[in-house]
């Protein structure tokens, strides 16, 4: 207890699939404090920068507080009836397959269970797919092909006990930072070696013994070579050969693959094979560089094949390890939230499974065939086959490939419902009905993390306005559609019990997923449920799978799946000569509707950028910090250019986080065509052919404002600061009346204006105030402008004169873009200290400035800065945006 008198409550972090335990203390005024739960087995007290900044994201900023239909606020009673009637009428007229749900791996298991039951058990269609299609689908398909079940064999402890960790298409240092820190601790303790397989040099490469910058999409060729070498060197496990089918066919195909397809040198490949084969305790971690590919499922199997062939699976310190992205990606797979699964690891196409589920749910209607996978689902909406759509906890108008087309399809769908925290998303803006959802700290339920540990999420704050939990909204629509009894839920505990008892069906069909032991937890036990990893709930002695050679195909054996290298489907050509790779930034979460509210997190990489190799930059005659336009066969975008040797010549990289709300020209998925893996249906999000050219702007701008703004310029990008927002702008059209524009963009028609003009340079400095308080300031010039941006962003505590001069007073210092979010330490401060105090490693920086001493997420960047700057005379580092501070 502290001064507020409110106790700390155990819960789970809102973000990634590591599933860290948090301790939350409500402050009694709608806010909370957060720290890592020292007892949670995923993190033992550690949190990364995103987890630590959760307190900055729970405010009421931008929240949707009441249901809305066709632009008007309305009551829950009216809106739920409207949704139920429109869905019922559409089904009556056009059949069950004329409606669809598109949901999310961020839903709680209880939400997911109700959505799936409503669509598959009662509406009678399998048209429910999830953003996990863009995320985990290839792994699900690969696991099923190899193991006969979608089960992750290992546990997080394997990372502590491994002697070699191979990261394939996984930037763990930024995307699963607490697991990365766990591996770093093991490296300290036992000298664990690290190999990174990624076309790009990422923060995860910082401590790597080997970085294999392979050709994009060539992972199968690399792992096929490993399989051949395993065979040649006599490392095939006789026991596992016995326990599997398909080895000789797989080897035959592997031998036909040309390792040169990887673009790696023979010595690099040899070094990798030697290390992998020579280290029994090897964990191969993989994520989106593997899954998000037109050959994603084959990539997964190429990796699993090597572990199966050597029997390095399901034993301490070894195994393939698919790390899940979203907090409940795994729970969604268990519940059966994908269009091609039923529930509890059962199969839609299996008549016996269908009958058992039908009986359990006492349902009128179970679909006989798979539903539409995400890309096809949105195509069906475009074609008019689907006439009513409910999108829950995801933002497809920004994150689906071919996003402009998806956006148009949603807009043209006769009836679209969106459940979200906010109306300010690309998807919510085009929906007919908006339902206000309770958010992470306001709702209760369970999530399952990457290593099958089920943790409780607990409500500590009251939902604001009329917001309600997703399960609650879904259940009431189910009741109003006529299924009162089936959806008569009053609490998440009640749903959890039903779900847990349903898992006995899975066991009766010989499946591995079973948490029936939890089916009679009382409300209090559910409230108190501590992190529970299955299958230990059943008294199993080992928490791992498959070490005993028992698999879930009908013959009990594994399948070593024959696979061949196939390059990405869209190849570069004269018109689109660069391959665009996409991914994540350290401190932002997807479309930034939550992480973007945190000033601390927004300080790290605050503008959408594209990284390009210096040789390409020179060849195209571009310069650092230019704005560049990217075009692909389906769309285009404008990004800030960063010169970076982290990407290879011919490739460029851009992050996925910006949307119509924050930088409309930098929606990456507008460029990505909807090419998919034929088996999993997962889109190829990491290989798009594009062209790159300079955007010739006639003016450049920088702005700060108290409220969010929506300028109309070819390029603008907005991010949160401690006191409001900051914005970069550029435009092609000359503007005559800047004062008028500023009023319009910032929504301040009546503000007082103070301005300085320099017509010769086309420079304008305009401050808008209410007479006392500065509300916004806009700086424009024909050339990129020189200003102390970070200093100005501390508005409004600077005087009008300082604002208009664009300079700090002597007392305040511009520390540069933030590198350490926990202690707010900026790039310039760190570089200064490295030079002045002759610091030589990340620990030294920690001692001198505290940077990197809390969550550790920035340590790879600190190490890179030391490498760059400790030699005193080097340029600004390759991977930092300082050059943006033109
Ligand atoms: N900070 C942060 N963390 C997150 C998220 C977030 O939004 N922000 N999102 C969460 C979610 S949902 C997910 S799914 C995970 C994703 O976690 P990751 O998969 O680690 O993240 P990405 O950055 O999407 O992609 C990983 C890497 O794949 C590489 N890659 C591209 N093409 C290839 C290829 O052909 N072969 C190989 N081997 N590599 C390739 C890219 O260069 C990139 O570095 O992160 C989770 N954690
Ligand atoms: N090019 C490219 N595209 C990608 C990827 C990539 O690497 N490259 N990665 C893909 C992957 S792996 C993923 S997982 C997706 C992620 O893409 P999305 O799921 O579309 O992105 P989010 O921003 O996480 O969207 C979640 C939405 O739910 C809302 N929300 C938050 N809490 C709640 C709640 O409790 N209830 C409800 N109802 N709503 C809530 C948020 O405000 C937000 O609008 O993007 C995919 N798209
Ligand atoms: S690693 Fe970071 S984002 Fe992921 S669950 Fe832990 S604290 Fe949250
Ligand atoms: Mo994801």
UniProtKB/TrEMBL annotation:
Cofactors named for this entry: Mo-bis(molybdopterin guanine dinucleotide); [4Fe-4S] cluster
Origin organism lineage: Bacteria, Pseudomonadati, Pseudomonadota, Alphaproteobacteria, Rhodobacterales
The superkingdom of the source organism is Bacteria
UniProt-recorded name of the protein? Molybdopterin-dependent oxidoreductase
Q: Which family does it belong to?
A: Belongs to the prokaryotic molybdopterin-containing oxidoreductase family. NasA/NapA/NarB subfamily.
Q: Please name the SUPFAM superfamilies in this protein's record.
A: ADC-like (SSF50692), Formate dehydrogenase/DMSO reductase, domains 1-3 (SSF53706)
As recorded in UniProt, coiled-coil segments are: none
Instruction: Tell me which UniProt keywords the record has, alphabetically.
Output: 4Fe-4S, Iron, Iron-sulfur, Metal-binding, Molybdenum, Nitrate assimilation, Oxidoreductase
The organism of origin for this protein: Ruegeria atlantica
For whether the record's keyword set contains Transport, the answer is no
Name the Pfam families on file.
Fer2_BFD (PF04324), Molybdop_Fe4S4 (PF04879), Molybdopterin (PF00384), Molydop_binding (PF01568)
Q: Where is the 4Fe-4S Mo/W bis-MGD-type domain?
A: 6-62
InterPro entries in alphabetical order: Asp_de-COase-like_dom_sf, BFD-like_2Fe2S-bd_dom, BFD-like_2Fe2S-bd_dom_sf, CT_Nitrate-R-NapA-like, MoPterin_dinucl-bd_dom, Mopterin_OxRdtase, Mopterin_OxRdtase_4Fe-4S_dom, Prok_molybdopt-oxidoreductase
